[in-house]
Amino acid sequence: MTFIRTLIDWNVKVSRTFDRTLPEKYHIDGNRYFCEHFAPPYLGLGMSVYDVGGGKQPYLTPDLKHRFQLTVTGVDIDQNELNRAPAGTYDRTICADITYFRGQAEADLVICQALLEHVKHVDNAFAAMVSMLKPGGRALIFVPSRNALYARLNLLLPQALKKRLLHAIYPKTRSAQGFPSYYDHCTPRDFRRLANQHGLTVEQESFHYISSYFQFCFPLYLLWRLWILGFHAVADEQAAETFCMALVKP
Predict the structure, then answer these.
(1) Cys staple from 239: which of 35, 206, 208, 235, with CB 3.0 to 4.6 Å?
(2) pLDDT digit string (tens) for 189-215?
(3) For residues 22 and 229, what is the distance between their CA atoms, to the nearest angstrom?
């Protein structure tokens, strides 16, 4: 078992080294970019913020919440996940399925990070986010794309098998990943269409072309990276592995 772990770690290291030979846009991690660069400029003093699907790992830390004097509402389908968030993160919590929940138009900002790929009916989730927002409020979304190769494999493989493989190869994902995924309408084109249907304006977009799922086997990772380069040349942002959007409610 130690040999296998050492072999996996070596392949991950080689994969990351190879990525440094590619143009910068092909090795910017979308989730990290969302957390560190995309979302922070939208935070303002005294805002009411809804963190949708953050559960035990909300976007806002207690320190950030205190610094901006934010009022933070956590919305998640699992109350146990909300209860495991760091102390002081949420001012209140709402246990609800985002596809049925309707808000009171009181949020300046809705943050939805790595949730919508797990939702069966994303159209209903958009309606929920609109209902939470004040006029002029913004929804900040980060989501993996349905067009990503790992997403396609995720849709094909049985859930139990996917979890065993993921947790065996990347043990650190055991507590945070492995939830069922559907990727309903999770593409840049479909999200623009849904935003338009729900009266939202796309203010900012960011597209990212890397994920770590195949790093455990460098030959496989190399083939996947060549695929990404070709797919991007043909399909532009539709080839993104992940993407971020900032949507404004008029």
Answers:
(1) 235
(2) 999 999 999 999 999 999 999 998 889
(3) 10
Please check whether residue 215 is in contact with residue 160, taking contact to mean a CB–CB distance below 8 angstroms. Answer: no
Q: What does the pLDDT average to over 9-17?
A: 94
Residues sharing a CB contact under 8 Å with residue 159, sequence separation 6 or more, in sequence order? 180
Rounded CA-CA distance 169/5 in Å is 8
The dihedral region occupied by 105, where left means phi > 0, alpha psi between -120 and 50, and beta the remainder, is left
Instruction: Tell me the pLDDT tens digit for each residue of 98-114.
Output: 999 999 999 999 999 99
User: Taking the complete model, does pTM exceed 0.85, yes or no?
Assistant: yes
- Could you please report the per-residue DSSP string of 90-140? -SEEEE--TTT----S-EEEEEEES-GGG-S-HHHHHHHHHHHEEEEEEEE
At 86, the amino acid letter reads P
pLDDT at residue 153, rounded to an integer: 85
Domain extent at residue 214:
2-248
**How many folded domains does the chain comprise?**
1
Do the Cβ atoms of 75 and 97 come closer than 8 Å? no
